[in-house]
Amino acid sequence: MTEKDYAPQKSEGKKMIVNAPKKTINKTPIQTEVKQKKEIVNEKVENKKVKAEIKEDKKQPEKKPIQTKPKIKKTKAVVNSFNLPISTKHSKAVCKFIKGKKIEKAIDDLEKVIVQKKPVPMKGEIPHQKGIMSGRYPKKTAQYFIKLLKNLSANANLHEIENPLIKDAIANIGSRPYGKFGRVRRKRTHIKITAIKKVMDVKK
User: Fold this and answer.
1) How does DSSP classify residue 136?
2) What class has domain 76-177+184-197?
């Protein structure tokens, strides 16, 4: 027996496989779906851009012209200081000493007090000084007052006050804290100085 007679079905199956025509796959529907998806995405992006532009138009309101308030010119300059470690009694004497003077003249006089060339008049059982009755040279108090008067001069320049004159100088006792071990109470003083524009007297 030959091989063809023994297994005729196998040879026929091989012939069928070889001769079978290949099927052609249509790719056109997939490509159309991809194009449709791209178009939908592009439309969404364009819609978002349009919405963003509309929001920006809404957020940008019309700018109103800024109205500047008229600057109120002040007629006086004030300097305040609290809890200074100086004597209240000396501070009251210095306040009386500088009241009614120009700021530059008051600073010049206090510098002379520090150098002991010009005493500050005081009341009480105080020794007499040259040229006046009773008086002293409170150096520490004068140093603090010079700092305050310099600040007062700067405030007067800021408010454009010409020829500033010291109108008020007030010294009040502050809260006195206890010292070490609570044996001594320290000195504390509040000071307020006011300066105004000097009014020139017009002769009739």
Assistant:
1) E
2) alpha beta
